[in-house]
Amino acid sequence: FRVEHPAGGYKKLFETVEELSSPVTAHVTGRIPTWLRGSLLRCGPGLFEVGAEPFYHLFDGQALLHKFDFKEGHVTYHRRFVRTDAYVRAMTEKRIVITEFGTYAYPDPCKNIFSRFFSYFKGVEVTDNALVNVYPVGEDYYACTETNFITRINPDTLETIKQVDLCKYVSVNGATAHPHIENDGTVYNIGNCFGKNFSLAYNIIRIPPLQADKEDPMNKSEVVVQFPCSDRFKPSYVHSFGLTSNYIVFVETPVKINLLKFLSSWSLWGANYMDCFESNETMGVWLHVAEKKKGRLLNIKYRTSAFNLFHHINTYEDNGFLIVDLCTWKGFEFVYNYLYLANLRANWDEVKRQAEKAPQPEARRYVLPLNIDKVPAQHWAGSLQGSGSSASTPRTTSPHTRMYLFFIVAFEFPQINYKKYGGKPYTYTYGLGLNHFVPDRLCKLNVKTKETWVWQEPDSYPSEPIFVSHPDALEEDDGVVLSIVISPGVGPKPAYLLILNAKDMSEVARAEVEVNIPVTFHGLFKRA
């Protein structure tokens, strides 16, 4: 059931807005549950050009931090730009100063040829534009992108506190915007690194919870385990990973970073990050598993056909198997190639035409045997995924099953009742439905029965749904789902915070604001 968007209201998701000097009161219809107290914090781009210079890619606009506050049935909205180096220098020099994901920052036209030549040798200035997510470390909150820089922010005032360079604490070249946070506050993340004898690898890092000594937990970061890279010089792009109480799952996809391009051509011919990606058309996908507590790689490699992966839904252990639920995009071509702003702002027919050329979305479940000697052959009958790799020992490749969870529209930006069911057997996931990359519905999926529930309204464009559990919840889906919706063509108010009953995705309340809110990617609910 495809919905059409000929009016093009989705273009408002990619429009520059101003920050607010103080929070504004939202107009509530319906009734906000009295137990819902705290803040929804979200990140996304808010400045899509500097003067006459445009940003070209979805992941280039300057980071804007948003907050909806809930208190005794009242709601306020606030937003501030994150004062990153990229933002502050752009504001100061009135031009794009730091190269972003898909936009090259040209050298300062005021400098002469000699000073420009020498600035090439200072090395690459890596962006700190923290537009992707916000997460807690100890008692602190950080906005982040996927480089080595994260930015500490004040979750109450949205003020920027300081830039932090992860390289100073632990051996990674960058880290994902999707760390796993355990209930005691331990943070796990993954990043590319230089492994043994100059070859590339992926490090899992662990940041312990805040201790009694109140020392910054970042100082106690450590590498837990290292996953090898399928190609010595070309690490795969990694956006998230899976974690259970005993295992870490890393999915190595065919979207590769060509490091030589990254290091050499960078400053010399107007390259940006997007120019450094390429696809390996023959490797397919490799899944790796490590034991979390021992920091030891499992001696099994799982192989399957090519897909892009950005978001793990959940991972759990089940009777000698790992269940790995993923939002995949079928094929080896990089999905980000289709996320240039010119594509996303096009008229509806053109948006559809482009999106149909891209890898197609599919939510999938992979079932990985942890001990392949003990798996009876009939377990795999009729569901075996062939593996085309040649192996030195039978143990290096293994069967696994795959099943489809959802593929009407893209089920993306998945969220679950993470606090209670992250890394454990679960039933429900909530996602943003992308219709040719246009977010136009919110979906709930029962991963056991594949039953779905959908919230959708004409010309309305929601964001990632955040599940907030009822404080006295007895069931997995006791709670609400929060999403920021823009509805440009509908009525006087351009945007609102939507509250749905997580059981049936029916509307509980909405809190409307008088300002447009551009696209946001990820965020969290911080309880009061």
Q: What is the residue-mean pLDDT, rounded to a whole number?
A: 91
Structural class: mainly beta
Task: Tell me the count of domains.
Answer: 1
- The percentage helix is under 10%
Q: Mind summarizing the main beta sheet?
A: 5 strands, antiparallel
Radius of gyration equals: 23 Å
Number of strands: 34
Strand content: 35-45%
Label the overall shape: globular
GO biological process, one term: zeaxanthin biosynthetic process
Keywords: Cell membrane, Hydrolase, Iron, Isomerase, Lipoprotein, Membrane, Metal-binding, Palmitate, Sensory transduction, Vision
GO cellular component, one term: plasma membrane
Protein name: Retinoid isomerohydrolase
How would you describe this structure to a colleague?
7% of the residues lie in helices and 40% in strands. It is mainly beta and 528 residues long. The two termini are 39 Å apart. About 4% of the residues have low confidence. This is Retinoid isomerohydrolase.
Q: Helix and strand layout, with pairings?
A:
Elements: E1 24-25, E2 27-30, E3 38-47, E4 49-50, E5 53-54, E6 62-71, E7 74-81, H1 85-93, H2 113-119, E8 133-137, E9 140-144, E10 149-153, E11 160-165, E12 180-181, E13 187-194, E14 200-207, E15 222-228, E16 242-243, E17 247-252, E18 255-257, H3 259-264, E19 277-279, E20 285-291, E21 296-304, E22 307-318, E23 321-330, H4 341-344, H5 348-355, E24 360-369, E25 401-406, E26 410-415, H6 418-421, E27 428-435, E28 438-446, E29 452-455, E30 466-469, E31 479-486, E32 495-501, E33 506-513, E34 522-527
Antiparallel strand pairs: 1-7, 2-33, 3-6, 3-34, 4-5, 6-7, 8-9, 9-10, 10-11, 12-13, 13-14, 14-15, 16-17, 17-20, 18-19, 20-21, 22-23, 23-24, 24-25, 26-27, 27-28, 28-29, 30-31, 31-32, 32-33
Protein name: Retinoid isomerohydrolase
Catalytic activity: an all-trans-retinyl ester + H2O = 11-cis-retinol + a fatty acid + H(+); lutein = (3R,3'S)-zeaxanthin; all-trans-retinyl hexadecanoate + H2O = 11-cis-retinol + hexadecanoate + H(+)
Main location: membrane
